């Protein structure tokens, strides 16, 4: 039986952001690829820490798109474990947009049945912008 879907604000703060050009990518050329390894701390509807890897495509210096996977270890609704989020986003001169979804089957421990998705829009440099996260558990 599915539990009721809940929506909460989640805030995450980058604790590491390491961006390098993708192997073979020319730093002067456009479009170009870059890889990012990051870590985050979560509070609100999700609590815990994470590791995250992105691939960025810079179409121009001010516009691009990115995808990535993040492994979160912590708690959702006082249930503990880990799970993975799939990220899809864009950036432009106004800021960033991001859509995340829980990768089905990626949960461990009490989060093994977690399902969910979320989104955010933020200005560049806005740390801690709220991710609106909706989730439920398949018990």
Task: Explain what you see.
The chain is mainly beta and 139 residues long. The chain has strands spanning 6-21, 32-44, 46-58, 64-76, 79-92, 95-102, 114-122, 130-137. Strands 1-2-3-4-5-6-7-8 form an eight-stranded antiparallel β-barrel. The N and C termini lie close together (6 Å). 19% of the residues are buried. 0% of the residues lie in helices and 68% in strands. A hairpin with a 2-residue loop joins strand 5 and strand 6 (95-102). The protein contains no helices and eight strands. It has one domain: AOC barrel-like, CATH 2.40.350.
Order of helices and strands, N to C?
EEEEEEEE
Count of DSSP H/I helices: 0
Let me know the average pLDDT.
93
As a percent range, the share of strand residues is: over 45%
Based on the coordinates given, report the CATH architecture.
Beta Barrel
User: Rounded to an integer, what's the Rg over CA atoms?
Assistant: 16 Å
CATH class: Mainly Beta
Distance between the amino and carboxyl termini: 6 Å
**Can you tell me the CATH superfamily?**
SO1590-like
Number of domains: 1
Estimated helix fraction:
under 10%
Low-confidence stretches: none
Q: Give the total of beta strands.
A: 8
Strand order of the largest sheet: 1-2-3-4-5-6-7-8
Q: Which class best fits the helix and strand makeup?
A: mainly beta
**Global geometry:** elongated
